[in-house]
Amino acid sequence: MQYCTLEKEGFLGTFYESETPSEKAVILVGGSGEGRGMVEKRAQTLSQAGFHVLALGYYLWKPLSPHTVRIPVDYAERAVKFLQPYARKIGMTGLSLGAAYTLLCASLIPEISCVVAVSGFDFVVEGCKYALFRQHQSYYSWHGQDVPYEPADALSHLFRTLRTWKRDPRYGAKAMNRFYYGECFPNRTDKSRIKVENIRGDVLLIGPKYDDTWPSDEANIRMAQRLTEVNHPYRHAFVMYEKGSHCLGMPPDTLCADGKSPEATKRLLAKFMTMEAKYPEECDRARADSWAKLVDFFQTW
Fold first, then answer.
1. Where residue 258 falls among pLDDT bands split at 50, 70, 90?
2. Main-chain phi, psi angles of 111, to 5 degrees
3. Which residues have CB under 8 Å from 178's CB, separation 6+?
4. 240: closest CA among 207, 192, 273, 202?
């Protein structure tokens, strides 16, 4: 295990070198609000499948910013350069916000030749602080410039936006974030779309049939259709779980948050995710199955 620092390598990460010879390396990033320990645990588990794996911090990990404002794609670019002496092929995977970051990075960095995006999204929006305050800057930056984004005008009249959400019968109490991403950017443009067709490699999209964390279900359909429309020349697939939750692509022994047991973490997930509350056993099976598919996709790349 090797720790990478902003001062030395230009990014924050933990590198797990495969115990067996491998020509493949995978960059793994976590989801929104996900602590470093959970991400490192998944990275270590993935390395045991025969890959070099780098758990990459892109925001939230100290001393990085805790805010989703101008998160540098450059971290992934530097991570690729770090991994090139170890591996001939470099892939990337992420969950939730990490999946969106993964897709964006792979669309801009040609050396990333295999992607597994779990419960991701396909548009870049305006960054914010404390999930409420507009910054008039992108979620992401690339070589010092804002990545094109959709303005978050809904945050300028937050109380009206919240009233609209509560009155909309299509969105339950757990689906405020889904409402925000689905309804508060009605005029999304192609300029802010993550160009998945520019990824120079294999793409696996994984997600639930319904996602109240954000509308990854709709985004996955759009991305899968786009790859088909352009006759994407690389392998691409889409796996949807009818009774799975937003939290997919996790082996059971890594489902721990802030020192809590997996059981305590699942109870916490049920408070915030409809499918976790309604179908806990099915969500567990979907988590395990999607992890197996993630590993297999990298093994057959």
1. low
2. -70, -15
3. 171, 211, 212, 213, 214, 215
4. 207
d(CA 196, CA 209): 20
Task: Print the SS3 string covering the chain.
Answer: CEEECCCCCCCEEEEECCCCCCCEEEEEECCCCCCHHHHHHHHHHHHCCCCEEEEEECCCCCCCCCCECCEECHHHHHHHHHHCCCCCEEEEEEECHHHHHHHHHHHHCCCEEEEEEECCCCECEEEEECCCEEEEEECEEECCEECCCECCHHHHHHHHHHHHHHHCCCCCCCCHHHHHHHHCCCCCCHHHECCHHHCCCEEEEEEECCCCCCCHHHHHHHHHHHHHHCCCCCCEEEEEECCCCCCCCCCHHHCCCCCCCHHHHHHHHHHHCHHHHHCHHHHHHHHHHHHHHHHHHHHCC
Predicted structure pTM score:
0.96
Q: In this predicted structure, what is the pLDDT of residue 252?
A: 80
Phi, psi for 178 (deg, rounded to 5): -60, -45
Long-range contacts of residues 139-142, Cβ cutoff 8 Å, at least 24 apart: 139/68, 139/69, 139/70, 139/71, 140/70, 140/71, 140/72, 140/73, 140/101, 140/104, 141/70, 141/71, 141/72, 141/73, 141/74, 142/72, 142/73, 142/74, 142/108
CA dihedral 114→192→217→104, nearest 10 degrees, is: 20
Summarize pLDDT for 192-237 with one digit per residue, the tens: 999 999 999 999 999 999 999 999 999 999 999 999 999 999 999 9
Residue type present at position 256: C
